[in-house]
Design a protein that fits this description.
- Helix content is about 40%, strand content about 15%.
- The chain is built from 10 helices and 10 strands.
- Helix 5 links the parallel strand 7 and strand 8.
- Helix 2 crosses helix 3.
- The termini are far apart.
């Protein structure tokens, strides 16, 4: 298995880097995750994104262990599911972190994220302080957040002086979030897009994208992923189909021009598909 990858590494604000294209396993059943992650690693993906709530950390870890890819070539992300009713404490965060490591079969993580801010409860502040301890202890290389809004980002930075390396948020052409991405750039936070292809809910059938895809002799999915890359986003597309896993990886040998980018920008209609982080609380 070759260790050479065409994927550029994006610098993080703590001096580390992350591959710009990774492989996501949201909604992949654990018994299918081994095969999907094995396929991705064999193609050349080196960044794998999972989460405790996905229920597939075990399958992800098994694929990593069986892949033969050296651990120092991999970038493994998982997320703390903070959707519980009791207040979070340092000890409960450490317990969940250890549980994720155990399921993954790893002795350290490359990136650990708070999955949702749960802003109405305000316990994300305590959780973030615990993550800074995990990083200081060397158990996780980088720490970040997911689905955080501007107010929560500024709060945890003001509380600790530690800026998340990444905010993993919903981004796709019809929900581009330019204001939040601009804040990320101002604060030195990388934008990582979940559901970068719009969850298969019609985005890839858009005639504008189809026209651009025909122009470049590419699929609409490849056009959308290339759009993300040229914006500077990190992406973690998900698929369990080997040819689509490969296709999503083959986005480095063409470029969109200014007309393409302007046409795609016109698709942004604020079509949020996932929950609203300001109100989501489970």
């Amino acid at each position: 298995m070759t260790s050479v990858s065409p994927v550029p590494n994006v610098p993080l604000n703590d001096g580390n880097t992350i591959p710009q294209v990774g492989f996501g396993v949201w909604q992949v059943p654990d018994d299918e995750t081994f095969t999907a992650v094995t396929s991705a690693l064999s193609i050349g993906y080196r960044s794998i994104d999972t989460a405790a709530i996905y229920g597939n950390e075990v399958g992800t870890g098994r694929a990593i262990a069986a892949s033969g890819v050296p651990r120092d070539e991999l970038f493994v992300t998982t997320k703390l599911w903070n959707g519980k009713t009791q207040p979070w404490t340092r000890d409960s965060v450490f317990f969940e972190f250890d549980a994720s490591l155990d399921r993954l079969g790893l002795d350290h993580l490359d990136l650990y994220l708070i999955h949702w801010p749960r802003a109405v409860r305000d316990d994300y502040r305590e959780i973030w302080r615990a993550l800074t301890e995990l990083k200081a202890d060397g158990r996780v290389t980088s720490i970040g957040v997911s689905n955080f809004q501007p107010a929560q980002l500024r709060t945890i930075i003001d509380d600790t002086g530690v800026t998340p390396v990444i905010n993993q948020i919903e981004v796709h052409p019809d929900f581009a979030q330019p204001e939040l991405r601009a804040l990320h750039q101002e604060l030195g936070i990388v934008t990582e897009a979940w559901s970068p292809l719009g969850q298969g809910r019609g985005l890839l059938d858009d005639p504008v994208l189809a026209r651009i895809a025909e122009k470049h002799q590419r699929s609409t999915a490849q056009v959308v992923l290339r759009w993300h890359l040229q914006l500077g986003n990190v992406v973690i597309p998900k698929s369990v189909t080997p040819h689509r896993i490969r296709q999503n990886f083959e986005v480095f040998d063409f470029a969109l021009d200014t007309d393409d980018l302007a046409a795609i920008a016109s698709l942004d209609v604020g079509n949020r598909l996932g929950p609203d982080p300001d109100t989501f609380d489970v």
